[in-house]
Structure prediction request, 212 residues.
Amino acid sequence: MTKKERYKFVIDWFQKNMPEAETELTYSDPYELLVAVILSAQCTDKRVNMVTPALFKKFPGPEKLAKAEFEDVEPLVRSVTFANNKTRHLIGMATMLMEKFGGKVPSTMEELVQLPGVGRKTANVIISVVFNKPGMAVDTHVFRVSERIGLTTNAKTPLQAEEQLVANIPKELLPVAHHWLILHGRYVCVARKPKCEECGLQPVCKFFKSLQ
Prediction:
């Protein structure tokens, strides 16, 4: 099977079986999604969704968050991983939004990665989810699932995986494809004991083939 055939099978399967894939983070505007994604690094969306309602109530926009002290924010996010660092990132991010971007979340990779706490993965989430632009955020799920299926080959870094995926998935499908792979990795192609018996991608999956 060629890589092109494998991609076609995977895309067709997801379009049929998961046509409405989207983020599981709860948000109502670009600022809230940016906060949630920063908090979600190495933390579950479920935990983040438990934390953000109180945070958004106290800091409904970047203007208030930019004026906050560490002690105002940290207790609200204490239950997420790396709470101290993320608290500083959130305040720094809000400060830069106000000072450099007029309080608006920017829409380009170059601008987004200038924000504290925002790396390429987070920027790609914002680009694809908020602005519906071609963006492939590679988190641990996407990295693992892509390699197992055979969508990527010998990718050593998230950027290498991103480049291979972007080269083979039609631009207009990149925003939803990101969620296909995340959700598949979260619920089916899990890290320790992948649920191969219930996976519809068995016919093209290199990992499944290796088990035979």
